[in-house]
């Protein structure tokens, strides 16, 4: 066991004095916590925010799941770790590919570094798309709710998870997928007492239910009970989010969509441009692969510059940036983001072609994320924190810094 500070991606982290639990609540707009507390259904969260630290932070843009989870566990932006979406166009392969393979990671994680130094580490994530990235090169326990019936000692560092947790495998489209993460976290703390635990949920509820709605309050009430149990076992808890969430529809409940591929095809002809939506993943029922961030591939830089000026004039656009501008502003790997980065306004999303988006499964008006309007997230700790400069811009990927270096 090593008690010396651990350096990961040019940041130093102190060795923990008690178990540390970092929780990424997918899609947790700060208003969800406020509404649940105001409704009286989250007494532990209320106490946590009153007696610990209640801060706000900025997530990574694009405000999507994979870039932000990897930023949290590396303590660094995508320019360092390389994961800048769920999906991108691999120029070398000439293909659009999912970015959920560890081969796309360009930096090590805190989780792997602490495990190498002798810490007992556990990771539970809702969807399996994140598991291999979060557990890359990590000795310890790492599994997903989604595939909790398929865990093995060899692959996941644990067996018989369903028996341990006492729940059936949840549907990937359910609040229970996230509840399983919390229930597993509590059981692991009771039985294994990991030194570091990372819990990451899914935003199924937040895509469907606005802050203060019965479904949202029920979700945060559930979460509140499990967090209270982790607190009772002596853990330092830091809770943050990968992104916020906003309504993306008009007054009639119809999605506000800019189908950018259709627009560019009409302007410049089919196949002149390629629009990529980094929100795309295998689970699109609740958002139809519509988010507020897209990248565009153009034939050359001069063409991209002309297109940028025209795209900026489209109603609903907030930012239209060149690759270099976007890489600098959002700390993104320039070789993985296309020639143009497009960010839509708070209540607008970007699609490719209308014919490529099946919105028939949207049971409620669209809520989604991806832009700068979903960048503000909670960063709260169950203990007071000290030594943070008042002018420091806090990020969600400061979560482990807060827990290990600043929590009292």
Topology of this structure?
Elements: E1 6-8, E2 11-13, E3 20-24, H1 30-38, H2 43-51, E4 53-58, H3 65-74, H4 78-81, E5 87-90, E6 95-98, H5 110-116, E7 121-125, H6 128-134, E8 141-144, H7 153-156, H8 161-165, H9 176-191, E9 196-200, H10 204-208, H11 214-232, E10 236-240, E11 246-247, E12 257-259, H12 260-268, E13 274-276, E14 293-297, H13 301-311, E15 317-322, H14 323-330, E16 340-344, E17 349-351, E18 367-368, E19 376-381, H15 399-406
Parallel strand pairs: 3-9, 3-10, 7-8, 7-9, 12-17
Antiparallel strand pairs: 1-2, 4-19, 5-6, 10-19, 11-18, 13-14, 14-16, 15-16
Helix pairs in contact: 1-11, 9-11
Query: Which fold name corresponds to the CATH topology of the largest domain?
Result: Alkaline Phosphatase, subunit A
Number of domains: 2
Number of strands: 19
Mean of all residue-level pLDDT scores:
95
Q: CA-to-CA gap between the ends?
A: 22 Å
Global structural class? alpha/beta
Outline the low-pLDDT stretches. Answer: none
Looking at this structure, what is the CATH superfamily of the largest domain?
Alkaline Phosphatase, subunit A
Strand content: 15-25%
Helix-residue proportion: 25-40%
Oligomer: single chain
Biggest β-sheet: strands ordered side by side in the sheet: 4-19-10-3-9-7-8
Number of helices: 15
Radius of gyration: 21 Å
CATH architecture of the largest domain: 3-Layer(aba) Sandwich
Q: Identify the CATH class of the largest domain.
A: Alpha Beta
Tertiary shape: globular
Report the sheet with the most strands, covering strand number, pairing sense and barrel closure: 7 strands, mixed
